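Lecture 7 notes: from sequence to structure.

We start with a single chain of 211 residues. Read the sequence below before looking at the structure.
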Amino acid sequence: MPGFNGLGLHLESVGFKKNGNTWLLPVGTPWKMTINAPADFEIQSQRLAFAVANEWKKFGIDVNVQQQQGGVFATEYATGNFQAGSYWNQNCAIGPDIWVRLEWWHERYVSPNGQPASFNRERYKNPEVSRIIEQMARLPVTDPKNVEQGTALLQELVKGMPVIPMFGTSKFVPVNTTYWKNYPSASNYYEGPWWWWSNFKYIVARLEPAQ
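Now the structure, written as tokens:
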């Protein structure tokens, strides 16, 4: 797999070895991984776990997808009891000020494994990320520096790669205009059509009787 050549060279530089099509850990045993995945909810995340596992197996890692019910899935994520997981990460952001969505990457939120963490469940520590977050916290929402600082923050997160965003929300968003109209649309995009989020309160205020 050409896309993995660079990764293979890096692994070999830190002691991993390839035996046929199987990667061996520096201690000489086969490399095994478990990906935590939703069992019967968040279907996109569930499918993604199996897609990633298929690619990693082709690369030479012995991967198992462990599907879990919501309570176990969330608890193991919060307590750091996972090797990898297909999680709905709170990195989605819309607008120039992304502090509210990415502030949770500050290292102040890191908890020891085994203790529940409300934020930064990946236990990711990066002093530069924390420094930028602190700078952004002092900026008003309308300050143009938000774009500059937000860009710097995203660049640092890409370098460290604590998570790998794979897709955005994909859902059908039907409406019924029998009784109400003025829903958001491509030609009337005053708000995103997210009926399942708190943004819906802004839509309700602008609906109009159809008759």
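The two ends are 60 Å apart (CA to CA). Keep this in mind for problem set 3.
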